[in-house]
């Protein structure tokens, strides 16, 4: 009897423990499902808020760019259309010449090592005519100088050197074409700005004289308008100066290649005479 009662009590405890475990599992499962539902419900809202923030940032950037453009236009008009228009014309013409020179100098750049190897191979295989054909089909001032030197190779090394020096000067003039105009605009833009400043200051003093009193707002407004021309003139000069220095460095590089390759051509003709 006691054994049966003990067995019944043990089974009762086990059944209660199992029920408790199942209840806890169901509770945890419900919490997990509820959490996943909350996450699924909050995720689209978060995505929408992030998208709205991105759109807001883009809109702010666009408005900021528009504000900068409006400020530049406003300051340009405040400086006076007369001198400011001339300064702007200097910038446009200077940039046009600089872009044209950049394109020309990049097209004039030649791989001198490859050209020398091709000319040497042509001299060894087909003679001077084959070498001249190689130079004729190659673009750039170096190939043109090679062609002139090979064209006069029948008269000796002295004739070749004279033709290279003479034609090298011609090619150097072509490379430097237009640079003097860019330097003119670099010097002219700030000068026009200073002139506009002086004329603006004269106008400010005329206004003071006409008013018969020194008003701070009148003086400050006249000085501000006068100084705007100087600011824009200096900006134009700095922009064009960067392009000018790049072009000068490019011309010097091509001239050095011309000189080195010309010496190599003379040595090559001297070895194959």
Can you walk through the features of this model?
- The N terminus is likely disordered.
- The chain is elongated, with a radius of gyration of 41 Å.
- With 273 residues, it is mainly alpha-helical.
- The protein contains eight helices and no strands.
- The chain folds into two domains: 78 residues; 191 residues, no CATH class.
Percent range for helical residues? Answer: over 70%
What is the arithmetic mean of pLDDT?
75
Number of domains: 2
- Overall geometric form: elongated
First-residue to last-residue Cα separation: 133 Å
Offer a quick outline of the entry.
This protein has eight helices and no strands.
Structural key phrases:
single chain, 2 domains, 8 helices, 273 residues, mainly alpha, 90% helix
Task: Explain the layout of strands and helices.
Layout: H1 2-78, H2 81-108, H3 112-125, H4 128-136, H5 141-151, H6 157-175, H7 179-211, H8 216-271
